[in-house]
Specification:
single chain, alpha/beta, Rossmann fold, 8-stranded mixed beta sheet, 4-stranded antiparallel beta sheet
């Protein structure tokens, strides 16, 4: 079994607002092994992106703050190190592809300079060597005429090409972990497939671990090994990709899967929609936050938060009273 690179224990991140304290990430735990691709899945606002910004200590303070937990990278807690120690990890050992490449790239700097900056900072390369390496990276991730395009500005690239540039920046220092925050958002289906295939091949070639953030279960099906389903700041189900698609356990996971169009479904079958809306994280209801939308809710669901229940082989677990009470279970 591969070594554990990242271990997140009971992580909590909150935002202090005029409406109250928002529990954006509420007591979540997971591990990431070398070469593993982990998917964080859920609706917008469930805490996926905040989780990964917390890993790199990029939460703006104020109004946000990491209020508890541990983030162990190769056994060292990133939450107790000083800012300089974390800065060396950020971009070097753990890199991130942000959701919108147009707002993540500096419009006033050439692409080559932006890639070279990370190489100079984390690998100690000289300017000339770093610029040459930047052109090599652009060629490696499929940019045509890479040496000439390296001197272009972000606005001269299409959306898919800008996303490839972001990937080149992220992998420039051969990171141990790549965090991809919805890397295929706003891209057409063909470009989405190319970007996902590129990330998958890079993970395999470099034995690089990947955390894939997405709301699209179709994305995780083709690239991930393990999936964590998030709802209202909590991980409600954790499973291997095969187990999750073969036998989803949590009612929320089942709702997500049922809402995906299926090629084998009848043409007149109406697409399923989970009733209601996600809860306000500043004023969560008592008990399970999914209870108002759940068709299997019991009386205890409105009183107490269900514990995380382990089922079968790791990483199979679910946070639902159906299984904690023994009424559910694996068949």
């Amino acid at each position: 079994m591969e070594e554990i690179l990242l271990e997140v224990n009971n992580l909590r991140t909150v935002f202090d607002t005029e409406y109250g304290t928002v529990k954006a990430v509420d007591d979540i735990s997971f591990t990431l092994r070398k070469g593993e691709v982990l998917g964080l899945v859920g609706e917008s606002g469930c805490g996926k992106s905040v989780t990964n910004l917390s890993l790199l200590r990029l939460i703006p303070e104020p109004p946000g703050r990491i209020s508890g937990g541990r983030i162990l990278f190769k056994g060292k807690d990133l939450l107790v190190g000083d800012e300089e120690e974390v800065r060396l990890v950020r971009g070097g050992s753990i890199a991130m592809i942000f959701q919108d490449p147009m707002t993540s790239l500096n419009p006033l700097l050439k692409i080559s300079l932006q890639i070279a900056e990370a190489l100079q900072l984390h690998r100690g390369m000289g300017r000339k060597e770093a610029l040459a390496k930047a052109a090599e990276l652009l060629k490696a991730i499929g940019i045509p005429d890479a040496e000439a395009r390296a001197n272009d500005y972000p606005h001269q690239f299409s959306g898919g090409m800008r996303q490839r540039v972001m990937i080149a920046m992220a992998i420039s220092c051969n990171p141990d972990i790549l965090i991809a925050d919805e890397p295929t958002t706003a891209l057409d289906v063909t470009i989405q497939a190319q970007i996902l295939e590129l990330i998958k091949s890079l993970s395999g070639e470099n034995t690089m671990s990947v955390i894939m953030i997405t709301h699209d279960l179709g994305v995780v099906a083709g690239i991930c090994d393990t999936i964590c389903v998030m709802y209202a700041g909590k991980i409600v189900e954790k499973a291997s990709v095969d187990d999750l698609f073969a036998q989803p356990l949590h009612p929320y996971t089942k709702g997500l899967l049922d809402s995906i169009p299926r090629i084998d479904a009848g043409s007149r079958k109406r697409l399923y929609s989970i009733p209601g809306s996600p809860p306000n994280l500043a004023s969560l209801p008592p008990g399970c936050p999914f209870r108002p939308r759940c068709d299997k809710a019991m009386e205890i669901c409105g009183r107490e938060m269900p514990p995380e229940t382990s089922l079968g082989d790791a990483p199979r677990s679910v946070r639902c009273w159906l299984y904690a009470s023994g009424e559910g279970g694996l068949e």
